[in-house]
Amino acid sequence: MESQYETELDLELPQAMLERTTSAAEWNLILPVVIALMAGALLAMVRHSRGSQVGFSVLAVLAIIVVEVDLFFQVLETGPVAMTMGNWLPPFGISFIADTMSVSFALAASFVTLIVLIYFQAEIVPREVRHGFYPLVLLLLAGVTGAFLTGDLFNLYVWFEVMLIASFGLLIIGGRKMQLDAAIKYGFLNFLATTFFLVGLGYMYGLTGTLNMADIALVVGHADPAPMTAVAALFLLAFGMKAAAFPVNAWLPASYHTPDAAVSALFGGLLTKVGVYALLRIMIALMPASRELFDPLLTGIAVLTLILAPMGAIAQTNLRRAIGFFVIGGIGAVFAGMAVANVLGIAGAVFYAFHSMLTMTAFYLVAGLVERVTQATDTRQMGGVYAADSLISILFIILVVAAAGLPPFLGFWPKMLIVEATISQSDWILMSAVLINSLLTSIAGSRLWAHIFWRPGREGANSEVPNDHLRQLNSTEKRMALSAVCVLVGVIVMLGLLPNLLFNAANFAAMDLLSPQNYITSTGLELGSNLMGGTQ
Amino acid sequence: MKTLIFRTIAPTLTAIMVVFSIFVLLRGHNEPGGGFIGGLIAASAIAIYGIAVGVREVRKALVVDPISLAGFGVFIAGFSGLLSLGQSVPYLTGLWGYISIGATKITISTPMIFDIGVYFAVVGTISAVALALEEGDVDK
Amino acid sequence: MSEMLMAPFIGVFFATAVYLILSKSVIRMLLGITILGNGVNLLIFIMGRVTRDIPPIVPAGLKQPIGDIANPLPQALILTAIVIGFALFTFLLVLGYRAYQELDADNTDNMRLAEPPNPPQPPLSY
What we know:
The structure holds three protein chains of three kinds.
Chain A: H1 31-45, H2 51-78, E1 81-84, E2 95-98, H3 100-120, H4 126-130, H5 133-149, H6 153-172, H7 177-208, H8 213-219, H9 225-243, H10 251-255, H11 261-286, H12 288-315, H13 319-340, H14 343-374, H15 385-388, H16 390-404, H17 412-424, H18 428-454, H19 475-497, H20 500-514, H21 517-523
Antiparallel strand pairs in A: 1-2
Chain B: H1 4-27, H2 35-53, H3 55-62, H4 66-82, E1 96-101, E2 104-109, H5 110-139
Antiparallel strand pairs in B: 1-2
Chain C: H1 2-21, H2 26-47, H3 73-103
Helix pairs in contact in C: 1-2, 2-3
């Protein structure tokens, strides 16, 4: 047995390993995931000691952000970068590939996580630390970052499940009965969605003989288009469920309002966006032919999601459920950009998803502060917060305007790109849907603002009497939660005023998605020649 | 379960199963076996012990919390990939080393370290779930 | 050929799973999800093409197998999918059990805490 590693036989072996060397600097592609995973594991080992967990997790997320900023500028400069695990030749090994879209999403995800970690200091309950809040957050971040950076479809499935397990854990931390109820619905529907993804994966493997995204982009043209359409339909259903697009969105408003505000914020910022990312990657870059067939369907989903979601928000009395509908409305805007599928539309979709990650997290965090001040979750029991704490009301109205997409705030720019794209295609229905969405979102948001902040008292006969159920934020809440939200909203405002970098990045991302040559060559696969030789 | 036969045989059975699980783990690289299946065997051993003597005793016997074991496993697995950092090869590349003790040659490799990580991760998570379910039964 | 024989089986798996998932009982839904997962695993297995070749193990002393071998990749994919499916199944099982204890309900119609039935009218002011 010992001899088998030493025997040298003169066999003509096909090349299976990479020839080139990998410098340590190239590890910035894999480090974000590795740091998140290992830091999460370490924290899980010491989860009974409370003191060091915050500092350590904040340090880990900071390290991830530093690495990702480095990677971001590298990708902007040189185009997509790739690394294939275990030194195998690309279609055999699992590749990690970072292009502009994936790395900017990953950066936004880790920034949002950092804000939520700091915000959580005001909500902290010792019991929750013991149940592993910090390891789960890092595991969630690892899953999200892995999903953004991976270049292999099956690996994407694995990261989806990592994310799902971590989100299950976070959803039931605290153990209120309502959370158990929500976790059942969230769990079953998301598990079902990933199973659909797996079915699509199976067919994809059978049809193309490969699961490496770059390799699929190469060979997909040779595959039989009819079954490929079925594969695309399965992916659309699976990721549509994950992204909470209209007919399959019911799980989101049923679950997002039940955990702590910090956890809702993390979910609202990260989870649906991973579905959006996967849709953009697969429908636009990998299966453009199938996407053209689905254009009418994508348009329909976009229009319905855009219009019905803010209506749902208007009808809600629970604050965080209403915000859940805002999240869904944003998904509609991304679908609109995807349905147009020219450079403008895709750039708008990518930009909008990025904006949505920041804005929706901030929205849930502010909602958490409102709930602390008013000690209620129902807007009918809120009122008079403007008098009690005007800063929160300013933060809230900024976010309403940003989410509705009014200038000069962050949401305006991607919506402008999307509207421009629809005009260039003379798609008037889609254009009006995007604009109506903005109108309805601002109506829903300003109604919330008026009821929570402007109205002096609670709903009922004496709504003009000042609300006496309010309490002031205590010093920890001010120091940690309020300042964290202020930083996040400040970043949103700054990016809205200076959107040039984001415009450029979105443009690069769109071009990389629409013509994936650079994406393919970065892995080492040559255009026009592939190892698997098309269909089996 | 309070039957005398089961309570008598359970500790022996557990011990044999744990040893067997380590055997399965270590032969896994070239023959059927490996970290996952080994971990499952060890977790079943822990579950059997839990049924026989109660969850409290098992937690005392394990010393560390099962979730900590799982975290340790994930950490080890991630660490095994980091070993290739200085070698000009990508993450998770298999590195091999040999130790000679007398006439025997022992192979040490990063895939083996990874597999040990998988073993701990599986033992930790599965036994945590099993113990949680067994505890639930006691409550009723 | 054996693909043709397996295909109806996958159909039966999927049909059973859909029937069970559509029921109101959490435990039946859980069983349905598991059966669906097994159906999908079988599907991936078939998609890797079933062959009667030798197992994909390189004989001792050689660097590559002699002749054709069975495709090992679908099996690796299935193993991963089984492990992940198993982890999620155990989680949902514990969750369903907790929900049964705390909410005293195995019927999803009675689980309306997060979304109360008969929601209030939205406020008419402003």
